[in-house]
Amino acid sequence: MKKLSELYPGYPDIDIKGIKINSKEVEEGDLFVCTKGVTADRHLFIDDAIKNGAKAVVVSRDVKCDIPCIKVENTNKELPKICSKFYDHPENKLYMIGVTGTDGKTSVTTITQTLLGSDLCGYMGTNGRSCSLFNKDTNNTTPDSDKLYGYLNEFLESGCQYVAMETSSEAFFRGRLEGITYQIGAITNITKEHLNIHGSFENYIDCKCQLFRQIAKDGYAILNKDDAFFENVLACCHSHVYTYGLDPDNTLQIKKFTIRPDKTLITYRYNNKDYDIISPLLGDFNVYNLACALLICLAAGKKMEELIPNIDKLFVSGRLDMLPNIGQNFYVMIDYAHTPNGISKLLNFVHTLDINRSIVVIGSAGERDYLKRPLMGKTVVENASYAIFTYEDPRSEDPLDIINMMISDIKDTHNNYEIVVDRSLAIKRAIDIAQKNDIVLILGKGNETYQKLKKEVIYFNDIEEAMKHLQDRLSQEKQKV
Question: What pTM value is reported for the model?
């Protein structure tokens, strides 16, 4: 809690208990900041905020109300500054690690937390926020500043020294991370994504590069030298640069690896020494993700010998999550893959396993990059045995319109797919048609616990839905015997 006069000298000594930008979330004693979002101008909800207990408002235009109004030039730019001040600048007391990239952000940040230890390192991203003392949900991969700084303070109060957080291009575009200095910034890859937000691929790359402009000069940039846009990112770096990749000239070389059904055998080379690793994470993409996370920890001052014992603890929720075998003779896997590149890599990996058919359940998020939808659909049907197209967070869009965009380039050339709009029924359909040694892949949501529909957000979890339909199928099969 702070006095309004502490945040804005010259204003009354009113107790401010929190900062909010959503009028529906305002509670007694809060400061309401009227930011401007994609579809909403929060100046229009001042009356609602006051009814819910707001004691002061921050605005960027003249308004009339009976509580103190602090007028600033730009409320969006003001928000991170005032939130940082309210929580006594927690970002300056933590070792900040930011990870960006089109695919792999969740994996790298989660691996980093495991390697450093969840008692010392907090995680924030797609799978919520967590440390050894708690595991909680978040609404966005990178939350708005009113929540972000509160979460950072929460980590600090829980005894964390490090925070490994996913830093999305949209978060940089929206200014949510403005003012934060990172000790380490890392990137996984760059492929075409979110062009609806950024307008062009060049703008998208530039937002990814913003992380590296915000690294301390004595900090470290961790770059994937095998990525096609390595040079673009390198040009934005002003700190120390560490690289990972296949060539011997990398800081951490991926010397060789062998993927088996239950583990990956990897040889990394660092400081002229070879390290033979047994990783529980599967897929060549996870060889890169682990390399990136290891290099983050090495840049943070850790030694390879103290990191290696933690590798056998690695698990990334929502990534290659294989459902337990409860009597079925096929496999069911849940994964967050939701970009053409991520889907392609996952399916290529799956077909190296000893399986029969691959059956994919997939959708595409509403109000997001519509340009990638036809490519997603084509990638799935060309790399999977069978596809079931469904909805995934349609928001205000008609789910069928989204699906029709996904199949627009394949409807006259392929017949290895069907449409089941309801996601629960789509998952049921995939499980019902699975045969011996098939693998059902439910993609796009990972372990997320919601669906964003036109008028509401409902609880929905792919893993739980899959288990329910799997149990139903096995129960019905037993009754027939």
Answer: 0.84
